[in-house]
Amino acid sequence: MRTMLTAMALIGASALAVPAIAQTATPSAVTEVRTVADLAAICDPPANSPLRLEAIAYCQGYVTAAGQYHTALHPAGGRRPPLFCLPDPAPTVAQTGLGFAAWARQNPQHAAEPALDGLFRWAQATYPCPTPARPARGAAR
To answer: Is pTM, for the whole model, over 0.70?
Structure first.
């Protein structure tokens, strides 16, 4: 799955918090995001962080770019089905960042994975595409 998610690219209220992710992954300056833990930390930074606004802006830019890339690789009516399908209306970029951060805290087993892989894993779990209807057996082709 990692290879598929790395080759193809996404987008765009935690119940169980794992404080270690936010505490160890928060960068001193938002300059690079490598892992799921890194991205989760900047998408929902501590309220008292002096870099809070910078972190949120970075998260929202990351999520927006990933979503645009996914759309470019999986255009409507294209040969490749999308990895996820957003509802209508789609979530805001802020809701997406916070939703991803909550998912990351609830799934610490993915903390060391590449950030983009985790973002797509979250999107696939959160916004699955409907299964296409199969023709009935014996139907004319």
So the answer is: yes
CB 16 within 8 A of CB 127: no
- Token pair in block for residue 22: 């936010």
Produce one character per residue of 42-79: b if its CB has 16 or more CB atoms within 10 Å, e if not.
bbbbeeeeebeebbbebbbebbeebbeebbeebeeeee
**Interatomic CA distance for residues 37 and 108, integer angstroms:** 8
Indicate the range of 4-8, 29-33, 109-113, 125-129 predicted with least confidence: 4-8
Q: What is the pLDDT of residues 108-131, one digit of tens each?
A: 999 999 999 999 999 999 999 988
* φ, ψ dihedrals at 30, nearest 5°: -80, 95
Token pair for 33: 């995001």
**Where are the chain's structural domains?**
2-126
